[in-house]
Amino acid sequence: MDNNVKAYLDDLMIRIPSGKENLKYFRDENKWISSNSQMSIPGKKGKLTELSKTVEIQSFLIAKYPVTKNLYLRITKLLSDDLFIDCTPVVNVTWYDALKFCNLLSLECGLKPCYVFDEVEETATYDQDANGYRLPTDAEWQYACKAGVAGYRYGDIDVIAWYNENSEGKLHEVGKKQPNGWGLYDMLGNSWEWCWDLYDEKTYGVYRVFRGGSWGESARGCGATCRRSGHPTFCIDDLGFRLVRSITA
């Protein structure tokens, strides 16, 4: 592996302590998936059922930044220039693209890839014994974002996030806003981030969770508990992802 990439990855991952996280989400039995869109259709207020569960979180490693454009292009062999020329989050990547990247980076680092998937059959499995890079689970992402803070955000939104009122309509270099208490940058705003989990299989089928808000999102959408969903083939100019690794014996 390129020494610059190795040094970057060595500094990138932060250990998150074990704990518990409560996930709340809302189900609308009348929601449906659009036949001509890969985004879910919002439900009507007053018809939502609140569901919740508490998840045990094992200690894990998570990247202090979302995956940058240059890291993504370097590992996928589409870039040979300096790793640090463009440090904005990579976007316009599908959920499948994110899984492919995690597997490719794992192989590059001599680690066991976490995923086996079939885009045609829309199936994916996660090998929990693998030590490679992966996407965070829904609960891991929320737990890491909060960093022990009970509120909707870990700080003043203008201090911690690029969103539609301060972003000037564009992505920004990672790490330029204030991090949360665990040293994670851009958890809110700048770019949405794919998670591993199904959003709500009963209502949305194969649609997957993404989190965190973006440069184009309102303040309301940039919060630790805000959840959105998209088809695993969905991509857009404010949706990327962040790396995680399990801590194995």
Automatic annotation (TrEMBL):
Q: Spell out the Pfam families in the cross-references.
A: FGE-sulfatase
Domain Sulfatase-modifying factor enzyme-like, chain residue ranges per copy: 53-245
InterPro entries in the record, alphabetically? CTDL_fold, Sulfatase_Mod_Factor_Kinase, SUMF_dom, SUMF_sf
> What's the name of the protein?
Formylglycine-generating enzyme family protein
Q: Which organism is it from?
A: Fusibacter bizertensis
